[in-house]
Amino acid sequence: MEFFQDVLGIVSEPDLLATGFTVARPNDPTDGLFEDEATDNLMARWEFIASEYQIPEMAQKSVRVPIDSKSVEKGLIKVKRNTSELLYELTKRGVTAERDLYRYVMDDVTALANQVITRTKVAKNELLATGQVTIKENGLDLTVDYGVPAAHKGLTLDLGAGAAKDVTAQLQDIADLASDAGVQLTGMVCARSTVSKMRQNASIQKAINGVSMEGVLVTNDQLESFLSSEFGIGQVITNDLMYSKPRTLGSDGRPVTDKVRYFPKTACTFFGTGNGMRLGIGLWGTPPEEQIASFEQVSPSGENPYVYMTQWAEKDPAVVWTKASGLFMPVLFNPDSLYIATVTETAG
């Protein structure tokens, strides 16, 4: 574990290039709906997928559906860190062995890559919860609109005792709205608390077990079986995972962590993956850093990573920088596949 060309902070080429190949997280439920795919031409792949909309089309002269593509290649995610500053702090605390310093730098490289990966999970969940993705970083402030109809985004799921309609009727309305658009609902995404409230809801309890069983908690298995048999909702995905926004310093000089949910607690999104297909794809393109990287992009597998790691040294002042970057945009196959509701509770 020796630093590259004896430059303190620059790690070896193989170690740097081995980072960024694994972006799927086993505990992240959105990865199953938007699997990650690498492409050499993000724009071309986006246009092909979006124009088809994953809807079977009769074999005759077809017209490709136009999409708003001006924002697609703006999905550049990048974060850099002063590696020399890290080494300075470590040596002040008594870490002087090169092997130990090397390990700390590699841990920092991995942490930077994970920040880029976390941003892609935020984008996937935002698309699910709102039907769009906002980009407000790296000097940009724009919104990528996926064409989800406004009528599909302004729904309400009232789980309160005073709701104007019982929950089963509300779910049927959403299923009918999807059916009118040619979509069969197949799943839903929400917070675990929403599932708990549905299990406690009187109309759900009566629908599953009869009038005499009102007030008796419905099990998860019973609820899932009911949703599947009555509305075709065979996937009930709960997401309570959280991430941290960039840390700031508090008035006491200590880091402040601002925790945020990936998927909002008050949102419940119903979706239809018609024809047995996926809901979408997480497309990874080639960031500009690949062409100007300090190191050759070569790996034992012969493939490019999802997240690109680059390092460089400056002479005045003498500083080593490490940067992680990725070009990423989630793609929604069919704008009619999402039905986004706000969870409310009207008192009885």
Helical residues, percent: 25-40%
Class of secondary structure makeup? alpha+beta
Order of helices and strands: HEHEHHEEHEHEHHHEEEEEEEHEEE
| Helix count, DSSP H or I runs of 4 or more residues | 10
Mind sketching the topology for me?
Layout: H1 13-17, E1 34-38, H2 42-52, E2 76-82, H3 83-92, H4 98-130, E3 132-135, E4 142-145, H5 150-153, E5 155-158, H6 167-180, E6 187-190, H7 192-200, H8 202-209, H9 220-231, E7 235-238, E8 242-244, E9 248-249, E10 255-256, E11 259-261, E12 267-271, E13 280-285, H10 289-292, E14 308-315, E15 318-332, E16 338-344
Parallel strand pairs: 1-13, 5-16, 6-7
Antiparallel strand pairs: 2-15, 3-4, 6-12, 8-11, 9-10, 12-16, 13-15, 14-15
Helix pairs in contact: 3-4
Any overview of this molecule?
With 348 residues, the protein is of the alpha+beta class. It is 32% helix and 24% strand. It is built from ten helices and 16 strands. Strands 1, 2, 13, 14 and 15 form a five-stranded mixed β-sheet that branches. A five-stranded mixed β-sheet has the order 5-16-12-6-7. A two-stranded antiparallel ribbon has the order 3-4. Helix 3 packs across helix 4. It is elongated.
Relevant terms:
single chain; 348 residues; alpha+beta; five-stranded mixed beta sheet; 10 helices; 16 strands; 24% strand
